[in-house]
Design brief:
The protein has about 400 residues and is α/β, with parallel strands linked by helices. It has 2 domains: about 160 residues, VC0802-like (2-Layer Sandwich); about 170 residues, Rossmann fold (3-Layer(aba) Sandwich). Helix content is about 30%, strand content about 25%. The chain has 10 helices and 15 strands. It has an 8-stranded mixed sheet. A hairpin with a 2-residue loop joins β2 and β3. The structure holds S-adenosylmethionine. S-adenosylmethionine binds next to α6.
């Protein structure tokens, strides 16, 4: 059994563009991390692995590097795969999911690679109850409790990562009621952190849909770890709690420490509004499920009727994109009207907007700088941030 202070090669996977934010989150937790394309790597203890899963707001999963080797033949792959300590993550009779991708490599048949790896796992741990094989595609959702391994071949180099998270980390558990075009919780948190909002100034989202931005804001302001976003503040499920070497006491200590930091109320006003009554009903139900209904004031109203609290504060908005034909002109008007309302009612506030294109964001009528680039539901987007000027 490995020692509890053993350092593990950890990697937090993020959506493209969110690496610096996840790295900053981990550094704030005292971890010495390195940004890489697609995520953040560090050498961390088991307590850090637990902490990262519980607290990271902007990462999709946290993984442990199980093996890294080169293989140009199936014989080499089998030889390396049999040396991987699979028993650290899977027990005899367990269930396994493999997500395999191969690029620019001699071994290109992903199904055949998966088959060799499954054989190596069974060779070490004994027969598995069930297996599932597929490609590692961004946005792939989770099925069941099977232990996931992410296998990537690139130019004959192979990395195998054991997923420690289970369900993707954006699935905090609170968001069951959806409005149109909901934002991933991880991206909503990334907008807040990328805009420089730290939970100590007022926050308004006047196009809040199902409420993701104000709810993530309330979690941040109250220092509620995303893994504790159920109203009873019990942690959600993670894959690592089923690993044979799971350290239940260490996990309890990590959870207790995070729970002790929670503030009873948001120290600042947080407002969410939308002109669609159905969206506000969904947002209210979601905030209740996250146990932050008392921290967010929701109301059904158009952007033009927004009533910001005493500021200055942050307006963080995920406006409609209008990817369909015929939606462009009304949207230009909407962005222009948003700019006018902000200049009239919120001078000195910071505006952060998830923007699908320069043309639309220019309609807002004042300078906005790019804070990050990522994609939302497959659409390339930029987070742009600027200060609302004084009218006149
Ligand atoms: C992309 S969605 C926001 C999704 C939201 N971030 C979420 O996670 O569910 C854009 C929202 O803007 C709202 N909206 C569009 N025009 C509006 C207006 N003039 N005033 C207020 N809300 C508006 C829509 O009803 C929709 O809910």
């Amino acid at each position: 059994m490995p020692s509890h202070d053993e350092r593990l090669p950890l990697f937090a996977i993020t959506a493209p563009g969110l690496e610096p934010l996840a790295a900053a989150e981990l550094r704030a937790l005292g971890m010495d991390v390195k940004e890489e394309p697609g995520g953040v790597s560090w050498s961390g203890t088991r307590a850090q692995l637990y902490d990262a899963n519980l607290r990271l707001r902007t990462a999709s999963r946290v993984t442990v590097l199980a093996a890294e080797f080169r293989a140009r033949t199936f014989f080499e792959l089998e030889r390396h795969a049999r040396k991987v300590p699979w028993e650290r993550w899977v027990s005899r009779g367990g269930a396994v999911r493999l997500r395999v991708t191969s690029k620019k490599s001699k071994l290109y048949h992903e199904g055949a690679i998966a088959q060799r790896i499954l054989e190596a796992i069974e060779h070490r741990v004994g027969a598995l109850a069930s297996t599932d094989v597929g490609r590692d595609e961004e946005g792939g959702e989770d099925e069941g409790d099977a232990q996931l391994f992410i296998v990537r071949f690139n130019r004959d180099g192979c990395t195998i990562r054991a997923d420690a998270s289970g369900a993707l980390l954006h699935l905090r558990g609170y968001r069951q009621a959806l409005a149109r075009a909901p934002l991933r919780e991880t991206l909503a948190a990334a907008m807040l952190l990328g805009a420089g909002w730290d939970g100590t100034a007022p926050l308004v989202d006047p196009m809040c849909g199902s409420g993701t931005i104000p709810i993530e804001g309330a979690l941040l302001a109250r220092r509620i770890a995303p893994g504790l976003s159920a109203p009873d503040r019990e942690p959600r499920d993670y894959a690592f709690t089923s690993w044979p070497d799971f350290d239940v006491e260490r996990w309890a200590a990590v959870v207790d420490r995070a729970a002790a930091e929670i503030l009873p109320r948001s120290p600042v006003p947080i407002l969410g509004s939308d002109r669609d009554e159905g969206a506000i009903a969904a947002a209210t139900a979601n905030a209740e499920r996250a146990g932050v209904l008392g921290d967010v004031a929701f109301s059904a109203r158009a952007v033009s009727a927004v009533e910001p609290p005493a500021g200055p504060g942050w307006m963080v908005i995920n406006p409609p994109y209008g990817v369909r034909v015929g939606e462009r002109d009304p949207l230009r008007n909407l962005y222009a009207a948003l700019g006018r309302t902000l200049r009239e009612r919120c001078p000195g506030w910071t505006l952060a907007l998830l923007s699908p294109d320069h043309g639309l964001e220019r309609q807002v009528g004042f300078a906005l700088d790019e804070a990050l680039r990522t994609s939302n539901g497959g659409i390339p987007v930029r987070l742009v941030v600027g200060q609302v000027p004084d009218e006149g």
